[in-house]
Input
Amino acid sequence: MELRYSFVLFIGIILLVILVLFKQKKKKHIYKSGKKVANTKYVKKLPFYQEILKRYKVLIYIIEGLFIVSILGCLLLLSRPSYTDVIQEEYANRDIFLCMDVSYSVDKLNLQIVESLKETVNNLKGERFGISIFNTTSVVLVPLTDDYDYVLKVLDDISASLEAVTEYDTSSFYTYEYIVSGTIEGNEYYGSSLIGDGLVSCVNSFSDLEEDQDRTRIVIFSTDNILAGYPLFTLEEAGEYSKKHNVVVYGIATKTIDYYNKLEFKSAVETTGGTLYEEASGDTVNSIVKQIEASSKNITVGEKKVVKMDIPQVPFVILTFVVLALFVVIKRVAYYDN
Output
C-alpha cells in the first residue's frame, strides 16, 4: 500500500501532537463556572465516589483516544491510500451477423435457427451481434451491438412473426408483417429471393470493412438458394465479395434444397473459409458455434498500463466503527454527568 498524498498524514500528525501537548499544559484546576461545594473531601473519600470517578476518567480517556483515532482515520483517507497495478486490457474482436432469407420457403428453417441462437446469444461475452433479413431487399433489424437483451427481444419478435406466418395467423398485422415489411420493395421489377444481394448487403453492414482488419467477422447465413429474380450479385460473386472483406460465412440450408443449389451454396461459403450445414437444429447451431470458437480469435490483447487504485475501504470501516463507539461512550459519560 502507498499514500498518494503522504504529506497530508505527516502534517496532520504533527498538528495533532502539538494539539495534545498544548491541551496537557493548559490543564489547571481553576473553576470557571458552576457553584463550589464546601467540605467535599469527605465525599471524595467514599469508595463509591472513587469508583464512579475512576470509571468516568476511563471513559474520558477512551473518548479522547477515539477522537485521536478518528482524526487519524480522516487524515489517512485524505492521504488516499492506494496500490499500483499493471493491467492489460482485452477487447472482444469478433462480430457475428445472422443473415436470413425470409422468403416463405425458409420460414421453418429460420424459426429453428432463431430458437437455437437464443442460448448462444446469452453466452456471448463482449462480441457484437447483428441481425439482417432479406428477400428482394435487405433490412437490418439489429445493427452490430453488445446489447444482448435487445438482441434477444428481436429474436423473440422474429419467432413470434415466423410462427404467425407458418400458422397463417393474421390476427396481429404487426406480428405477421414483422419480417416481411421492407424486404419486398421493388419485387415487381427484380423478383424475390435475391440471395447474393442479401449476403453482400449483410457484409456491408459490418463496420470499418477496410480499416479494422483485426476483427473476426462471421455471417450465419440461412437460405434455400432458390433464386426467383434478377440480383446484382450472384451467390458466387457474393462469396468472393465476403472473402475479399475477410468475412467468413457459415451456411445453413433447408432440408429440401436441391442438388445443384446445394453445390452452389457449398462452394460460395467454402470460398470464405466457412462450412455449409444442410439442416437446422440445436445441434447444427451448436456445431457452428463450436467451429466459430475453434477457428476465430475472440480476444485482442491491448497494451499494458500502470494504474493506481484507491483502497479507502479499511480506513473508512475503521472510522465508521470509531464514530459508533464514540456515540456509545459519550452517552455513557452523559449518564455519569447526570
